[in-house]
């Protein structure tokens, strides 16, 4: 039994292929076409998944889309009518698109795949719920989903038992914790649906000065349910703004123009807004725990990527265990839809637990060598794996920044040891070096630690043996380790931990262990192998291009090590290019920046 799940047309396009209850492959389209947050039909990702499974589309039994277009269209129409004539422009923009494509998504999918079999549909938040629970290690668990909006739902909770899911309560559009956080993101001059984690990164530098003002914006009940004060928002009827003039009057300053200087006001807004989102999520989770009595919780939806709120839930809501799969946003809807069909609709028992994120393409040494040769790269091959790991660990200890390209590509927005930039977490200068000369991004942006799971409790305030494989939890760094790990210790003394095991990421585990043997500290910096505005690298060509055009010192790719570059990196040009990429400029405009 083969099920293909598809998510597209709204946010990040993603695909997941399930065969006989096991995940075979999963990937986002952006990794292949190199367009960050691409939301079009995932042609290349589907081709990859089918190829990984060794099948053709005709061998797929069921194709399922991650939400219900007709229900979503109903919400669009009701909203347009409710806010008329303010919705005149959204009407002109949206209706042709819906009538021309989105009400025909089933036909679109059939035509793109060249099939005539029926297309199945799963509700948006049910796809999220399934993506969280059905691949979790729990036999039963509470489920919390939260994002901007699906069809009507913005937040929902329910219970999973065995291979079945029951959703119990929901909050509906226009009241949304996800859209609240997007509004904060936009007010701070960052791109929504792209830079919400910048708000999380900026928050520790501020104070909760504006929490009371945010309570004017959103009414939060004891059970976590919310009502937005809609005089501060325009998301119900605007296509180009999220906040109203009243929002700017309330805080006394206009929306920050993109790329302008961040000051204490912006830092305090980020801190206060993050605190309010945490309050909503913790109160909601606590209510769910009290209602269900469950000890396990699974979380999904874009707000599930707010790793600070996730840790607060684990600490304060009464649950013993938490699970968030790595693609908690819309691309993961494809994963949930596929497993919902296989487990819930077809009543098959659950047989799969997601313990790692490595579900994308892998490249053998022959492919890597061919790519490096085509690029004219100078490289050294190290055949012995232990020698290669020892050499890489020594490079890290020598304060080198490494592009690490091994194994299958990660599914979801985090690099987790397959397409990673790695460095020494003990070096107090490393954060500034990587932000300025490699990632070309804001200096406040933090980096995550990767640590051997059995050693994590020695460096972070977390239980011994606790799993945090997807970099979605933020415990405190132990006080005595702040000076030991300055490059990954956030302004507030926390760290976005990734625990690594030999079972799920063997080569990466051995590298960190080898570095620990050399340095006495089995912890390294792990950040995504990309520059600002670009997707994480997928292919050897992507990796070499990023190596050449950034301040990465060495590229360790398969058994090959590259340290020489054909030209000197122009860091100022790199910054301008990455800003242009993030701003979504056209390819020709970006290419003109050298």
Walkthrough of the structure:
It is a single chain. It contains 21 helices and 20 strands. The longest helix is centred in the middle third of the chain and has 29 residues. An 8-stranded mixed beta sheet has the order 13-20-19-14-15-18-16-17. A 5-stranded mixed beta sheet has the order 3-2-1-4-5, with helices on both faces. The chain has a 5-stranded mixed beta sheet with strand order 8-7-6-11-12. The termini are far apart. Helix 7 packs antiparallel against helix 11, helix 11 packs across helix 12 and helix 15 packs across helix 18. The protein is globular and about 65 Å long. The chain has 3 domains: 135 residues, Nucleotidyltransferase, domain 5 (2-Layer Sandwich), CATH 3.30.420; 152 residues, ATPase, nucleotide binding domain (Nucleotidyltransferase, domain 5, 2-Layer Sandwich), CATH 3.30.420.40; 227 residues, Carbamoyltransferase, C-terminal domain (DHBP synthase, Alpha-Beta Complex), CATH 3.90.870.20. It is an alpha/beta fold and 594 residues long. 38% of the residues lie in helices and 16% in strands.
């Amino acid at each position: 039994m083969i099920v293909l799940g598809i998510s597209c047309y709204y946010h990040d396009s993603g695909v997941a292929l399930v065969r006989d209850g096991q995940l075979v492959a999963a990937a986002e389209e952006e990794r292949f076409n190199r367009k960050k947050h691409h939301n079009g039909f995932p042609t290349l990702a589907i081709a990859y998944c089918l190829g990984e499974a060794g099948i053709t589309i005709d061998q797929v039994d069921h194709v399922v889309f991650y939400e219900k277009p007709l229900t979503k269209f109903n919400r669009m129409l009701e909203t347009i009518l409710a806010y008329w004539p303010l919705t005149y422009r959204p009407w002109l923009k949206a209706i042709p698109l819906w009538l021309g494509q989105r009400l025909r998504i089933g036909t679109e999918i059939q035509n793109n795949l060249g099939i005539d079999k029926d297309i199945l549909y799963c509700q948006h938040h049910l796809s999220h719920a399934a993506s969280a629970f059905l691949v979790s290690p729990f036999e039963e668990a509470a489920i919390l989903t939260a994002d901007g909006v699906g069809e009507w739902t913005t937040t929902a909770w329910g219970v999973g038992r065995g291979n079945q899911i029951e959703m119990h309560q929901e909050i509906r559009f226009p009241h949304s914790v996800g859209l609240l956080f997007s509004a904060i993101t936009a007010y701070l001059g960052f791109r929504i649906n792209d830079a919400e984690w910048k708000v999380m990164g900026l928050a520790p530098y501020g104070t909760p000065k504006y929490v009371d003002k945010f309570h004017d914006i959103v009414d939060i009940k004891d059970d976590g349910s919310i009502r937005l004060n809609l005089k501060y928002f325009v998301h119900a009827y605007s296509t180009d703004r999220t906040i109203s003039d009243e929002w700017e009057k309330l805080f006394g300053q206009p929306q920050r123009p993109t790329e302008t200087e961040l000051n204490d006001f912006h830092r305090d807004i980020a801190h206060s807004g993050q605190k309010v989102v945490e309050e909503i999520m913790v109160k909601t989770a606590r209510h769910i725990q009290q209602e269900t009595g469950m000890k396990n919780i699974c979380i999904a939806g874009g707000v599930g990527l707010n790793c600070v709120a996730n840790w607060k839930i684990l600490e304060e809501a009464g649950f013993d265990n938490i699970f968030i799969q790595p693609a908690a946003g819309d691309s993961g809807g494809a994963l949930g839809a596929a497993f919902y069909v296989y487990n819930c609709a077809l009543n098959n028992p659950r047989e799969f637990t997601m313990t790692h994120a490595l579900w994308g393409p892998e490249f053998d040494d022959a492919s890597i060598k061919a790519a490096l040769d085509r690029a004219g790269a100078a490289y050294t091959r190290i055949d012995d794996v232990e020698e290669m790991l020892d050499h890489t660990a020594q490079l890290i200890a020598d304060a080198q920044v490494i592009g690490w390209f091994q194994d299958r590509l990660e599914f979801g927005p985090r690099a987790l040891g397959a397409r990673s930039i790695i460095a020494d977490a003990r070096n107090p200068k490393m954060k500034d070096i990587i932000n300025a000369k490699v990632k070309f991004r804001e200096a406040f942006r933090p980096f995550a630690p990767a640590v051997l799971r059995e050693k994590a409790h020695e460096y972070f305030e977390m239980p011994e043996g606790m799993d945090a494989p997807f970099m979605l939890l933020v415990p405190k760094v132990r006080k005595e380790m702040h000076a030991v790990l300055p490059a990954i210790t956030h302004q507030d003394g926390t760290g976005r931990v990734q625990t690594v095991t030999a079972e799920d990421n063997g080569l990466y585990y051995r590298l960190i262990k080898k570095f620990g043997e050399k340095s006495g500290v089995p912890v390294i910096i792990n950040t995504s192998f990309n520059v600002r505005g670009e997707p994480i690298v997928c292919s050897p060509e992507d990796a070499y291009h990023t190596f050449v055009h950034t301040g990465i010192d060495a590229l360790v790719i398969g058994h090959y090590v590259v340290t020489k570059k054909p030209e000197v990196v122009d860091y100022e040009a790199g910054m301008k290019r990455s800003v242009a990429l993030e701003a979504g400029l056209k390819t020709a405009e970006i290419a003109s920046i050298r």
